[in-house]
Amino acid sequence: MSSPLHVTDDTFEETIKTNDLVLIDFWATWCGPCLALAPIIDEIAAEYSKKAVVGKLDVDKNLFTAERFHVLSIPTLILFKNGQEVDRLVGLCIKNNITSLIDKHSLS
Predict the structure, then answer these.
(1) Range of the domain at 90
(2) Could you give the count of Cα atoms lying within 13 Å of 91 in the half-sphere of its Cβ?
(3) How confident is the model over 12-42, as pLDDT tens digits?
(4) Is 34 a catalytic residue?
């Protein structure tokens, strides 16, 4: 069973460039909606381990990357394909919205 990869400012670039499809959850420990989303992110990491890498980036500890991608609200989920941002979801959302996003870009 795969769990989300903990991504930092130092590992972010390598993570998105060495994997075809990467979903990053920008979150913080004090964020209620982020904590509510965490079990869904865990499920997706396990279920989609063959399609995408799922990572989590704590915005309080990794300000550079959060600012670079203009993450103004959390949770923010950004999907990267071949190192480039291809889609984004902001706020607490249902699992199906996230998996549909991954599916859409894994087929294209």
Answers:
(1) 5-107
(2) 1
(3) 999 999 999 999 999 999 999 999 999 999 9
(4) yes
* pTM for this prediction: 0.95
Integer Rg of the chain from CA? 12
Q: Catalytic pick from 34, 37, 40, 101?
A: 34
Contact 74, 28 (CB under 8 A): yes
Catalytic residue among 22, 23, 31, 45: 31
What CATH code is carried by the domain that includes residue 31?
3.40.30.10
How many angstroms from the chain centroid is the CA of residue 95?
A: 13
- What pLDDT was estimated at residue 1? 55
Number of domains the chain contains = 1
What is the tens place of the pLDDT at every residue in 35-70? 999 999 999 999 999 999 999 999 999 999 999 999
